[in-house]
Description:
Layout: H1 2-12, E1 13-16, E2 21-24, E3 30-31, E4 42-47, E5 59-64, E6 83-90, E7 93-104, E8 107-116, E9 123-130, H2 134-147, H3 157-189
Antiparallel strand pairs: 1-2, 3-4, 4-5, 5-9, 6-7, 7-8, 8-9
Amino acid sequence: MPLAAALLALQFFATNRDLGYRFQLPDGFIGVPGDQSLHRDIVDCWSEPMPASPSGALMLCVHRMHGVLPHEAMRPEELPPGAGLVSFFWKGFDVQGIRTDTVRSGMRITALVAQVPLRKEAIQLSLAGPTGQVSRMQAIMTSTLASLEGETNWLTSVERSSRLGKGVGAMLALVILVIAARIWRNRRAQPA
Length: 192
């Protein structure tokens, strides 16, 4: 029975040990078979076998970013035409994302992309589907990011404060040692 439960759990979670992440798949999403070698940056994709909308199904993919993300924000001028910056929340961080609206085969499509600063290598989660489902897509992206586990290369404000406090403490200790050494030297230099 434990093996069956483990196999069942694998069907509902996306895990990649090489990149160091795990997240819960949205309800009803299943793996999309295909040749990922055609798109070397795509790690995996999932879609709805039964679209929630007559206009089409949503598709969720993980893309490699081949490096770590800096904490500096993207600028709008760095984006392709038709794309805009959006913000998502992950592990206490505001992570940047992109929203792109386009038309393909006469159908309006929206893609939401969240860039996740994982320690080993940053990833992008992309969710694409009919523009009429944007609010549902935002809810799915939010819940997927909330379930995403993985180590990050970014420091939380508590970690930054702790490191700053340690640095200030070390600097203060060094100043005290220098003052104490001068006092000691001055006392030894004075005639008795």
